[in-house]
Amino acid sequence: MNPQELKTIMGSGLLSFPLTDFDSEGNFNARGYAERLEWLAPYGASALFAAGGTGEFFSLTAEEYPAIIETAVQTCRGKVPIIAGAGGPTRFAIQCAQAAEKAGAHGILLLPHYLTEAGQEGLAAHVEAVCKSVKFGVIVYNRGQSRFAPETLARLAERNANLVGFKDGVGDIELMNSIYMKMGDRFAYLGGLPTAEVYAAAYKALGTPVYSSAVFNFIPKTAMDFYHAVAADDQATQHRLLRDFFMPYLELRNRVQGYAVSIVKAGAKIVGHDAGPVRAPLTDLKADEIEALKALIDKLGPQ
Questions:
Q1: What residues contact 200, with CB distance under 8 A and at least 6 apart?
Q2: Global pTM value
Q3: Alpha-carbon span 125 to 148, nearest angstrom
């Protein structure tokens, strides 16, 4: 898939980040991961992000990363495109990007470089180094320490034809509007705040009609129903699902930092697709929180 094809895929429907399966000792469980992808693939996501944020990219080693991407590509070939997560220090991000390209992924989501602060010149150098290291498409993730000014993105887009996407995980409406006004259709845009459904209608109004759904990992039918409601401006369905599921879900998610991933793994276990424990420094939900989540899921009916 060339970069422009990836750009088209990004704008065509709901995207999601599958969990990464670990066994009881915290090691990558390739068989469980393949079964997870086989379960999710038919539900209609336009692409799946392997080893993304919900897939705990931040906890993966350089040795196990290629096997995760290869498993995803092989399992989903001919079914759904795979976009790989890549990030961290520049040289490690390049290593991941090149491994993903070699494995046959359709592009990468460039996650934040982590920890250290950096100016716009440094951020641009980081993104450009990764873009220049591969031929397939790159989506930059605006989040954490990696926050891009419109002018920086414009310079990067001019110098790197394979930089085709922008995902926002900051939620600065003024900045997002400025970026869209400056870049127009040069990028495909993706909403990427945690539990993106809560912001979906607002982002659609800003020219970002698609988003990535974490809850697709355990309530894929409901996730698709909500996406279709946003696409059709069906506010009644949106408000019903926000009231009955997403807002009480946020109350659970917000109890502990890092629960944005942990609660998704708990949900997957509840519906019979256990992905194992989260890796430190994340922590799993407590028993009473799992019961509260189960009650919310049960109200939604069969998936």
A1: 191, 211, 226, 227, 230, 238
A2: 0.96
A3: 12
Which of 273, 246, 261, 266 lies closest to 58, judged by CA? Answer: 261
Contact yes or no for 71/34 (Cβ under 8 A): yes
pLDDT at 302 over 90: yes
Catalytic site includes residue 180:
no
pLDDT at 1 over 80: no
Give every CB contact of residue 188 below 8 A, 6+ residues apart in sequence. 7, 8, 10, 11, 139, 164, 165, 166, 210
Report the distance separating Cα 64 and Cα 8, nearest Å: 30
User: Which of 7, 167, 265, 269 does the annotation list as catalytic?
Assistant: 167
Average confidence score pLDDT of the chain: 97
Residue showing tokens 């409901």: 222
Q: What is the pLDDT of residue 259?
A: 98
One of 65, 141, 189, 259 is an active-site residue; which one?
141
Which two tokens mark 151?
């002018």
**What pLDDT, on a 0 to 100 scale, did the predictor assign at position 115?**
87
Q: Is-contact 211 192, C-beta < 8 A?
A: yes
E-strand stretches of 98-206: 107-110, 137-142, 163-168, 188-191
Provide the pLDDT for residue 87: 97
Q: Tell me the HSE value of 249 on the side-chain side, using a 13 A CA sphere.
A: 28
Query: Burial of 116 by CB count in 10 Å (0-12 exposed, 13-18 middle, 19+ buried)?
Result: exposed
Active site residue 249: no
Residue of 199, 191, 89 whose CA lies nearest to 139 = 191
pLDDT in tens, 178-231: 999 999 999 999 999 999 999 999 999 989 999 999 999 999 999 999 999 999
Q: Tell me the residue type at 44.
A: G
- Torsion from C-alpha of 27, 30, 34, 36, nearest 10 degrees: -10
